[in-house]
Amino acid sequence: MSEKKKGFWREAIRVTKENDPAARTALEVLLTYPGVKALAAHRLSHFLWRHHFKLLARMHSQFWRFWTQIEIHPGAQIDYGVFIDHGSGLVIGETAVVEHDVKLYHGVTLGGTGKDKGKRHPTVRHGALISAHAQLLGPIEVGANAKVGASAVVVSDVPERVTVVGIPARVVRVDGKKDIKKITTLEERREASYHSSHHPSDQ
Ligand SMILES: CC(C)(COP(=O)(O)OP(=O)(O)OC[C@H]1O[C@@H](n2cnc3c(N)ncnc32)[C@H](O)[C@@H]1OP(=O)(O)O)[C@@H](O)C(=O)NCCC(=O)NCCS
């Protein structure tokens, strides 16, 4: 998690202005962006959750789900400086971790597969872009500055600085380039790691 020198509100304004050319003033960001409201509310829900007021935390997060259409479980760990654009239908699960400068669009799920216990939701490292309606499932890690294409379904780790698209999501760019050799190597590694964690008896 990043250092918190600047504070939640200043980071929220910074990241919104950096990512949305439509954001004109700080006041407009604070008053009209559902993502800013949902993340601000999550700070209180998370505080209540950590201090064992779990039912109150769940009720508080559900109240803000009603107003913002963004559902963040109070247990999720979310850094300052996360950007949520539009946000409707966004779901973030209990054990998800989201680092600073991550961009999340509407319809994204940081969810579980239903098969894992304990840490069962994704970790999204700093600067990653998770496009509209992408579904990230399980305790996977999306590396720093990676991009996940719209409507992709991601069930295995995504290395840093790559682009993945499709169902199931595959690497299509490395550092923005279509370097077939690097892409093939990364895909072979991803497949081996997926199989060793999901089907260990096949090894
Ligand atoms: C993935 C994305 C971030 C682009 O990343 P990029 O690294 O610049 O990748 P490119 O645009 O060069 O595309 C790489 C390849 O993936 C394909 N591709 C891009 N997005 C895709 C998607 N969502 N689904 C399937 N294929 C996709 C491209 O056609 C290209 O194919 P090629 O290798 O055959 O040429 C972008 O296309 C995307 O999905 N943006 C959506 C952002 C969003 O949610 N906006 C909502 C605003 S309201």
From TrEMBL:
Q: Which GO terms describe its cellular component?
A: cytoplasm
Instruction: Give the pathway listed in the UniProt entry for this protein.
Output: Amino-acid biosynthesis; L-cysteine biosynthesis; L-cysteine from L-serine: step 1/2
Question: Which UniProt keywords are listed?
Answer: Acyltransferase, Amino-acid biosynthesis, Cysteine biosynthesis, Cytoplasm, Repeat, Transferase
Q: Which residues form a coiled coil?
A: none
Organism domain of life: Bacteria
This protein's record includes keyword Disulfide bond: no
Q: What is its EC number?
A: 2.3.1.30
SUPFAM superfamilies attached to this UniProt entry? Trimeric LpxA-like enzymes (SSF51161)
Name of this protein: Serine acetyltransferase
What is the native source organism of this protein?
Lactococcus taiwanensis
